[in-house]
Design goal:
Blueprint lengths: L1 H18 L4 E4 L1 E2 L15 H4 L3 E3 L2 E7 L3 E8 L2 H10 L2 E5 L8 E4 L4 H5 L5 H7 L7 H16 E6 L10 E4 H6 L3 E6 L4 E8 L17 E8 L18 H4 L8 H15 L3 E8 L6
Parallel strand pairs: 1-13, 2-4
Antiparallel strand pairs: 3-4, 4-5, 5-11, 6-7, 6-12, 7-8, 8-9, 10-11, 12-13
């Protein structure tokens, strides 16, 4: 079962790697740092002041001033946003001389990530369609949903040998470093605001350390493929529709294949796209 799952995930990874053949290039609009709207975590004002760039089934607006990068992302398709809520959404900001995925923030973190705090919950959430409906699990999922928007993941790497090990931090800690994050959720689609300091300072240690005038690689990613790292053999016993009714039996090969197919569908669609952004400066 594990081999079949990892083979399927490897195939999906290859498709993802070769699905994007061209890179969009845009120029960030320079924003007056005194504009009051940009002092808020909610960057809705960018929809009126900055160019809307459409990439696949998401749209984004990007501006910067001398201190910060402002990115507003809209999800056009409800299925894509459902994947975001379940598995998180990452924005990467890589400088001209940086490695790929050198700096990133995942927000929201995703329900699946937060379920990792409960033994067996991730496995049950993926494999059992009715897992969230059981009384024993309902509270766990509700807590995971809240935690997904109360925390974010920080990715910072200096070289290619550094592992991708995102660190979970509360939003209050991001705010203390002048990173502001905001989710506007209407239930079907969502809008996420990212305010990220450009340069590393004592008050902005969570930063890609880039300057106005440079060109950055701006990446957007939903990555359920990382789930192949999950050990499907481990975890606490699950409460499923089978065990809840008192049954207990071994799986047939057909049932095992159906379970793998259901798991793949449950994991959603991986998404990755990159855009070249020329940061504007006050001298432009």
């Amino acid at each position: 079962m594990i081999f079949s799952l990892r083979l399927a995930l490897s195939t999906a990874t290859l498709f993802l790697a070769y699905s994007c053949t061209s890179t969009i290039k845009v120029t960030s609009q320079f924003s007056d740092p005194e504009i009051s709207e940009l002092q808020s975590s909610n960057l809705e004002s960018l929809t009126r002041t900055a160019e809307r760039v459409l990439v696949d089934d998401l749209a984004f607006h990007v501006t910067n001033d001398e201190s910060n990068l402002y990115v507003l992302v809209d999800f056009i398709r409800s299925r894509r946003y459902e994947n975001v809520r379940e598995f998180g959404f990452t924005v990467y900001v890589d400088g001209e001389n940086s490695i790929r995925r050198s700096f990133g923030i995942t927000y929201p973190t995703g329900i699946y990530h937060q379920l990792g705090n409960y033994p067996g919950a991730q496995k049950g959430y993926l494999e059992e369609p009715n897992w969230s409906n059981f009384q024993e699990n309902r509270g766990i999922k509700e807590t995971a949903e809240r935690s997904s928007t109360q925390n974010a993941l920080l990715i910072q790497r200096q070289n290619r040998r550094d592992p991708m090990q995102p660190v979970t931090l509360p939003l209050t800690q991001f705010n203390a470093q002048n990173v502001r994050l905001y989710l506007d959720d209407d239930g079907r689609t969502g809008r996420i605001s990212f305010t990220i300091p450009l340069q590393t300072r004592s008050t902005s240690q969570f930063s890609p350390d880039v300057k106005p005038g440079e060109t950055i690689d701006l990446g957007f990613e939903i990555d359920p493929i990382r789930l192949h790292d999950m050990d499907m053999r481990s975890g606490a016993p699950l409460i499923t529709s089978e065990t809840a009714s008192g049954g207990s039996r071994s799986e047939t090969d057909q049932e095992n294949r159906e379970r793998i197919n259901r798991l793949m569908m449950r994991m959603g669609e991986p998404y990755e796209t990159w855009v070249k952004v020329k940061l504007s400066s006050s001298e432009d």
